[in-house]
Amino acid sequence: MKILVCISKAPDTTSKIAFKDNNTAFDENGVQFIVNPYDEWYALVRAIELKEAQGGSVTTITVGGADNDPIIRKALAIGADDAIRVDMEATDAFQVASEIAAKAKEGGFDLVLCGKETINNNGAVVGGMLAELLDAPYIPLATKLDVSGTTAEITRDIAGGEEVLTAQLPVVISAAKGMAEQRIPNMRGIMAARSKALNVAAPAGTEASTEVKSYSLPPAKGDCTYIDAENPAELIKKLHEEAKVI
Amino acid sequence: MRTDLYQGHDYYNMDDLLSEEHKLIRETARAWVKQEVSPIIEKAFEDGKFPRHLLKGIGEIGGFGPYIPVEYGGAGLDQISYGLIMQELERCDSGLRSTSSVQSSLVMYPIWKYGNEEQRMKYLPKLATGEMIGCFGLTEPDHGSNPGGMTTNFKDMGDHYLLNGAKMWISNAPFADIAVVWAKDESGRIHGLVVERGMEGFSTPTMGGKWSLRASDTGELIFEDVKVPKENLLPNKSGLGAPLGCLDSARYGIAWGAIGAALDCYDVALRYSKERIQFDRPIAGFQLQQKKLAEMITEITKAQLLTFRLGQLRNEGKATSAQISMAKRNNVDMAINIAREARQILGGMGIINEYPIMRHMMNLESVITYEGTHDVHLLITGLDITGENAFK
Ligand SMILES: Cc1cc2nc3c(=O)[nH]c(=O)nc-3n(C[C@H](O)[C@H](O)[C@H](O)COP(=O)(O)OP(=O)(O)OC[C@H]3O[C@@H](n4cnc5c(N)ncnc54)[C@H](O)[C@@H]3O)c2cc1C
Question: Could you tell me the pTM of the whole model?
Answer without folding.
Answer: 0.92
